[in-house]
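Question thread 4412

I'm putting together a teaching handout and wanted feedback from people who do this every day. The idea is simple: show students a protein as raw sequence, then show them the structure tokens that encode its fold, then repeat with a second protein so they can compare. Below is the first pair exactly as I plan to print it.
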Amino acid sequence: MEYPTRDQDQYTRHPEFWFSDGSLVLRAQTTLFRIHVSQLCRKSLFFRDLFSLPQPLQSTARENERIEGCPVLDLHDPPQDVANLVKVIYDGPNFTNNDRQDFVAVSGVLRLAHKYLVDESIRIKVLEHLRAAWPSTLRGWDTREDIARMYELETGTSRGHRFPNSIAVINLAREIGADELLPAAFYDLSRYSYAQIFEPSIGDPLHPASSPADTSLAHTLSPMDMQRLALGKEAAQHAITTLIQSMEYASSDPQHSRLMHRRSRSATNNLAPCVTPAACRKDLSELVELAKQHYLMDRERGYTDPLYVAEELGQLKSAEFSDCTACARDLEAWAARERERLWKAIPDWFRLR
């Protein structure tokens, strides 16, 4: 049967996905989508199986409901998510720059693709796009951070607004089983204070109002993930202290055998010696005191971000201006090794394996 005239005002045809030759109407809340069953079944095992089942001889009026001659299928999903999924089914995955608005579309597609058993090839492509913002490699993370820094410089807005709320990313990863997103998301979240996480102010990156309105994104962690966050934040803070202590040990080494006992090689493949051992030990000692004051005492910017701290420590003694280029380059190499070590440790900090 057609829906009664008195009910017409309750429904709105989707402006893009109402095909005059469609064979099925999807109803999500008050939004109607007229699409092709064949398209839906090509991409979704759930719908393929659903429409291959024999129909009952007797059915209710609701089950017999038709709109413009098409059967109606009710979906208990947000209309925006349904629209994004339908767009991917017809046009393929095509997203933008991993900003907050983009994440609304991406997360909606991933949730419904998981729910309706959409082809794995689509899920893989969408996750590949999302991993650019929540990478599994240190190189990918550094690229992400460069984008965030550029965003802050260009807009004057906190870099935390450039990418989606990491709590929403963690919850999405849990819902769809995308565990590869979790280390980067937990690490990003751990850089905020507890007040910013649990009592964010209006305008803060983690405040729900900072995300696009009218979405189904969840902004509260589960109790177990709150515990993982607390443990990880503690481990990250300890990692910063350990970094600075290792520099302090090197600065007090009377033999001055170079930081972490590694030596740089010159273009002729010979070991490049330290030319000013006493002065280099003094410089390194002063750098240690500066790092202690900045990150441990004053808790300046970056004090919750071990990867940032290690990078900054490696640049404190510039090879370009230092009297001892060899030791400056050793410090840079040490910092690079420490950053790789820290990155590999992140899953353990947050009890993710």
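The second pair follows. I'd like the answer to focus on this one:
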Amino acid sequence: MAALEHSRSLLVEAFLFIILSTTAACVVSTATAKSVPLPPLRFKNSNGQFKILQVADMHYANGQSTKCLDVFPSQVATCSDLNTTAFVKRMIKAEQPDLIVFTGDNIFGADTKDPVTSLKASFEPAISAKLPWAAVLGNHDQESILTRKQVMEHIVPMDYTLSKVNPHFHGKKIDGFGNYNLEVKGMKDSELEGKSVLNLYLLDSGDYSTDPKITGYGWIKPSQQAWFKETSAKLQKTYKSKPSEQAESAPALVYFHIPLPEVKIFRDSSIIGIKQEPISCPSYNSGFLKTMQTYKSKPSEQAESAPALVDFHIPLPEVKIFRNSSIIGIKQEPIGCPSYNSGFLETMVQAGDVKAAFTGHDHLNDFCGSLRGIELCYAGGFGYHAYGKAGWPRRTRVVVASLEKDARGDWKGVHSITTWKRLDDEHLSKIDTQTLWTKTRLKSF
């Protein structure tokens, strides 16, 4: 699927080069100044939680005239972009999030008649609900008459958005468009009300490689990682400094579109469940897995062999490949990651505050896997004008950070981060609830 997308994109880019070269001068930004000032993000509800709704891969195009992909034949006639909009609205009503994060491919640029109109329509549910929201770009948002920079420039002035084109960084250029951080302040009237107790980083993972020696998707560049490292270090220092100095760093979450190359380690076809202890298998591998895969029975009159199940007590050595402490969700397609590894996982590990990173891009994957202390999570495909799988509902991911209280009942910092997914079915089914991170040495409630 990733290869097909890349081939299609190359054709689109070749066509767009001709169009853009003659019309770029005529593209006039219709963005206007934001009319609604936004207060700081803050833990403010009665249960001390902050809830984030991740919307990945809407692939919005032209509204009702844009038909759905990969649905049952009986759904084709009535299914359109409006189903995507309805799903966003259902989720807002059901979860009442404090923030919505759109993680790229918000519009499918190549199919839009007017990308500015499509952008406005794609984010309309968040705007009409008067909810804070933020967006990053995927690899399809710019496949129209707008460049990636122009797409972000149209997003940033919209009402209720916290999106930014790029931060100031010592006068240096930062690669991409849509690299920024958001701070979530502590509970009002608590000692941490002026400090960020949850840090969010949003980065542009690019579209496609611009290096002729490297094929495939783009990646998070050194300039972006330098900004991330410096920003993380500053926020951690502030959190640990007076007033109300803290012993540990505030947790951080990272959002971008294209998954990291390391996600390829989760290479089984279906990952469901939890691994909580080491695999107790033989130190010697007798090759029984290969035997099961290659054994052929005597010829029979049937075209295919009857299915077989094998039961035994001690697991095979190959089970060790599932060496992550928590693997929950489903993997149904190859990982569409860059062929070049820019080292961003290592950068996040070294920063020390990142607990989870959330991506989209591969619509049929919705799992979380823990690698080097960081949960790497997909949201699953959200939009109906995006490839999917008939009978496998479109879905979204919810993340909740919860504060702790001290012995006196005063609100403190974040003590846990949990997640689940919601399906766009009759009941908005809630599945795969899991804890991504829990603070050690919790204080009593």
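Top answer:
Good format. For the second protein you could add a caption like this: The first strand starts at residue 41 and ends at 42. The longest helix spans residues 2-23.
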